[in-house]
Amino acid sequence: MNNTSMNKDIENALDLLRSGLLPDRQALTALIENDDPQTADILVKEADACKKKYYGNKVYIRGLIEFTNYCRNDCYYCGIRRSQSSVSRYRLTADDILSCCEAGYDLGFRTFVLQGGEDPWWNDDRLAALVEAIRKKYPDCAITLSAGEKSRGSYQRLFDAGADRYLLRHETANPCHYEKLHPADLSWQNRMECLRDLKAIGYQTGCGFMVGSPFQTADDLARELLFLKEFQPHMVGIGPFLPAAGTPFEREKAGSAKLTIRLLSIIRLLLPKVLLPATTALGTADEDGRERGILAGANVIMPNLSPAEVRKKYLLYDNKIATGDEAAESVAHLRQSMADIGYQVVTDRGDSLNT
Ligand code: SAH
Asked: What pTM, to 2 d.p., does this model score?
């Protein structure tokens, strides 16, 4: 592709995005590959204006509770995959988790996100009882689960117990790419079916992917964007891929914060009402990543509410930030750093505007 046609593609893509229309795969690829700072500025400004139209200057916070790092899966990228023998495994008890919620509630959190590996000990009976206990104690809070692939029946049971939202990144919209990131016992078809089940049950549903995961191309990223537009998730979680020692991908190149930020802006323009976190991985890849993400279209931050002694054990990737502003105790500081860039952290469930 020569320069002139590339510029035309980009202008075309920007025009369509501005009018709420969907550029084609080629135009999206050109926008993703483009590295021009002026285009980056335009995207950030337009994404910010688009978000403000629906959400003003509000930033929603979610208290992230990493409740178990046991996992039966062996995803090639993940630092807590089954084969990581060096990981010191832990599992919070229901009481531990309720204490995290209590501390979080006092700090102003009105959403609790329970994330973990696929831990068979946390079966439906135990998880449903936990969700019921949180629901009973905190009727004004949203409960988000992020505990991997389950049957439709299990998802329904957890929904009936009181869970409102579910995060399950699809990881890639390209089934061939999925096979390069996962062993053969995990299937792209099943993951996508899980997402459809979650939405059909009535969960506010989040999907997402890593930016710069091994073998990912710009065309794959364009396919991600087309998939998001079609699936219409309530939430989208994206962050740069970061290598984790001991995994098959330990020597792979990390994804870039800059490209992640560009994608956040494009996603905001494609899905104006979406709930879009500036993730911990983005904050790890770039020390100002979370602020830059918020300025570029993101509107959610998920500080860590897990007990301090287990934070260093939930290492999905190397160098995960775990002592500074990402910690829920620093919420006062987070409020200040958001105020400094013109945003207000609110005490609010922050539900999807699409329900
Ligand atoms: N077991 C749950 C939670 C997985 S961890 C599930 O299957 O949904 C949450 C997300 O962290 C994953 O979906 C993946 O996108 C991301 N992640 C895992 N390893 C990572 C790495 N090395 N770099 C960046 N993100 C990673």
From this structure: 0.96
